[in-house]
Amino acid sequence: MAPSEQEDPPRSPSTPTRRRALSIGFGVLAVPVIGAAAYQSIRDGSSGTDVRSNLTLVAPAAAGGGWDAFQRELQQAMRAHSLVGNVQVVNVPGAGGTIAIGNVAQQNRPNMLMVGGTGQIAAQIQFGTESQIEDVTPIARVVEEFAMITVPADSPHQDLDSLVEAWQEDPAHLAWTGGGSFDQLVMTDLALAAGVDPGETTYIPSDGGGEAIQALLNGTAQATAGGFADMLPQVEAGRLRGLGIVAPERLEGVDLPALPELGYDVTLTNWRALFAPPITTDEEIAELEALVEEATATPEWKDAVQRYSWREVPLGHDELVDYIESETERIAALFEEIRG
């Protein structure tokens, strides 16, 4: 099961908070962490500091989250086929992944890859962080993960239309929960498609997918748009009921409809891409792209894709730059709807 990235609860972007001050402070402290790990990686590597000799994979969250799982699976694929002389994973948690952005942006060597994506863009908009995804160099988009609209097993709602009808009648009474900013974005997108005002909806933020599941099970919330890999085991165990998958089409082997076939044009995905420091040259970008392509073609990586229910959506540097720009605009528009 792939744990969700953990993010802070929402706040008004115009209101300074102690969390913001702490995040900036932690960002300063985290620079030596990456630097020390990079030094150890170089010292233990076969030779040199190029990307094929030594590589640091940065997970912008604590161990056990979705970003961490991605990087450790990538590390395993690289090690299994000796694609890099020495490859290490470093965790730099905080502020929805934006502390790691700030630290990678300050590095003066190219042999570093941070995983990021939808969650970081959501966090930088939601919390008004100084660090932005544009501060680092996009290398390649790799996979995306889908959300599942889920309710408790004893919920009166047997299908999505039933849930939406109750939601339309009393948005404040039907409480949603989620394990991070991305889950709230999906809920907002569904609300707009269903003609519900997101600003009138009761949303209870949870600290990760596990806490969101507990909120459903104890009756605190009535629905979630949680990560597919988090929710599927609970559905299979009979604790929760899946009503639909937030994906363009049905997933192979999953007996749940995709939202578009139910009449709701909601396809926002939790995509994950790799980023390098801003000093990375065109030649080094090409070398890192080639390395990612080789690693994601291995049997070990293919097995991880299946285990975590990811979908491979490869995209190179040039296309990824444009994609990030469009995704940032799309996510910013959804947050405007949340704020009303």
Automatic annotation (TrEMBL):
Transmembrane segments: 21-39
Keyword tRNA-binding: no
Record-linked Gene3D superfamilies: Bordetella uptake gene, domain 1, Periplasmic binding protein-like II
Key words, A-Z: Membrane, Transmembrane, Transmembrane helix
CDD domains: PBP2_Bug_TTT (cd07012)
SUPFAM superfamilies assigned: Periplasmic binding protein-like II
Domain of life of the organism encoding this protein: Bacteria
Keyword hit for Transmembrane helix: yes
Family per record: Belongs to the UPF0065 (bug) family.
Name of the protein in its database record: Tripartite tricarboxylate transporter substrate binding protein
Source organism of the structure: Brachybacterium saurashtrense
Phylogenetic lineage: Bacteria, Bacillati, Actinomycetota, Actinomycetes, Micrococcales
